[in-house]
Amino acid sequence: MQTRYDQADVRRLLDQLADAIAAGFSSKEPLIIVGIRTRGETLAQRLTPMLVSRGFDKISRGVLDITLYRDDLSEIGPRPMVRPTHIEIDINSKPLLLVDDVLFTGRTVRAAMDALADFGRPSAIRLAALVDRGGRELPIQADFVGVTQKDVPLTHRVKVKLAETDGADEIVIEPRDSKGDAK
User: What is the set of domains in the chain, with CATH numbers?
Assistant: First the structure.
């Protein structure tokens, strides 16, 4: 199992992801790309110009905060940090690409779909994830994946770092410390 991906690897994975997304949607139809805060938002920002360069010219973007839709909200503290959701477009009857950095249990995606229902009913919701680490608790899978790492032990964390939020692009798979955080 590869445990570290550097900047060149992340660039290559994003390029492959953009190719797969371009093959999965019609460039002649409108496409809505919604990133799940925080790194899904950044990945959606990066994927948009990549798709434009592949012939997509009717792209709208949004940002989704799922904090209040999480099923573990009571476990994350008395004052969870809620940031704004920005979906200022009509999503009804249009295909929507939901973007996140890591797909693990499926609970984040379920929360995102619940949140999206407050904004309308897309014709389809497809999921793009930079990393699929396996370990699903819900019957959810990504339509488009940069890299699949199904052998990640539950004692490990997959951390996606992006230049916009973390100063560098990399993916690191490492053991969690005794509190459940990555070392």
Answer: 30-153 (3.40.50.2020)
> Rounded CA gap, 70 and 52, in Å?
32
Q: What is the pLDDT of residue 183?
A: 43
Say how many Å lie between the first and final Cα of the chain, rounded: 19
Please tell me the distance from the alpha carbon of residue 121 to that of residue 105, in angstroms, as a whole number. 24
d(CA 128, CA 47): 10
CA 142 to CA 126: how far, in whole Å?
7
CA angle 51, 53, 57 (to 5 degrees): 65
Q: Is 70 exceeded by the pLDDT of residue 4?
A: yes
CA atoms lying within 13 Å on the CB side of residue 115: 25
Residue closest to 34 by CA, chosen among 151, 117, 148, 107: 117
What Cα–Cα distance (Å) separates residue 34 from each residue in 64, 98, 131? 7, 5, 17
Q: What is the mean pLDDT of the chain?
A: 91
Burial (Cβ within 10 Å: 0-12, 13-18, ≥19) of residue 9: middle
Q: Is 172:180 a contact under the CB 8 Å cutoff?
A: no
**pLDDT recorded at residue 32:** 98
